[in-house]
Amino acid sequence: MAKPERESEIRIVVAGESGTGKSSLICSATTEAILWDPEPCVDPVILPQELFNFGCPLTIIDTSSKVEDASSVVEELKRADCIVLTFACDRLETLDRLSTHWLPELRRRLQVNVPVMVVGWKMDLMDENQQQSLQQMVSQSNSSEIRGAFKSSVFQEFREPWIFQEATRLVLFPIGALYDVETRSLKSKVAEALKRMFILCDRDKDGALSDEELNDFEVRCSFEPADDYGPVKRLLEERMSGAVNGRGITLAGFLTLHAICIERGTTCMTWLALRRFGYNNAIEIPRFEPAAHI
């Protein structure tokens, strides 16, 4: 698998109201057990880079809920690569505070523009009204604020380091460079890059990718090739007309396939394809100028 273009540490800061499980989340991720009464604020935790096989170390920062520690919390939020906001599922006011305080504080006052992931503590106590409130907040944010909330699967009970793996993915495979959530469309640079990939993979130049050509594309990107592309084609046909023809998946279908993956939160697929075809994080192919000889 192509490695992300990052070697420095990733800092994930956990914040939220008092009693919403911030410290419990961190402790459960590092001890593989849920601690219901941990220390009020745990020390920074460094997870080894081998844990998720992303090639970079991960530092998890807890934050205090004490008023006198507010300035230090602000500094940590400004240094974060990703922020995990917590709320308690049995206290609706902590969910309301995400949209009335935490998100406006991050975006407008602090000008923090990093991925945000929302996690509910005591998920089994969440009632239907709270679930609707949560989904409404996510929908209204247009994912420009909550970038880890494409699907409700993000909001799960704390268990093992899974949540921090997802948070790391948000940093390494960001959606913002790929997709415009408001217009529900691929960014122009990404569309052009995918078009180039399509042309390179369309060996017989018939304007469609056959099953064999799709297989070659997946192998080149180090994906697990599908045994049957029928389900993918049916999905594309349901999404739009002209995505598939008798020769295979068309350019429009290829672009739509990546858009669907991104909408479902699988941004790593498109990022890994871009990197396999020579693109950097700016969705550009670096130009290497020859050294000047004097």
TrEMBL record:
Record localization: Mitochondrion outer membrane
Gene Ontology MF term list: calcium ion binding; GTP binding; GTPase activity
Start and end residues of each EF-hand domain: 189-224
Signal peptide annotation: none
Keywords tagged on the record: Calcium, GTP-binding, Lipoprotein, Membrane, Mitochondrion, Mitochondrion outer membrane, Nucleotide-binding, Transmembrane, Transmembrane helix
Transmembrane region(s): none
Entry's Gene Ontology cellular component terms: mitochondrial outer membrane
SUPFAM superfamilies, per the entry: EF-hand (SSF47473), P-loop containing nucleoside triphosphate hydrolases (SSF52540)
Xref: Pfam families: EF_assoc_2 (PF08356), Ras (PF00071)
GO biological process: small GTPase-mediated signal transduction
Gene3D superfamilies (alphabetical): EF-hand (1.10.238.10), P-loop containing nucleotide triphosphate hydrolases (3.40.50.300)
Membrane topology: Single-pass type IV membrane protein
Family listed: Belongs to the small GTPase superfamily. Rho family. Belongs to the mitochondrial Rho GTPase family.
Protein name, UniProt field: EF-hand domain-containing protein
Species for this entry: Turnera subulata
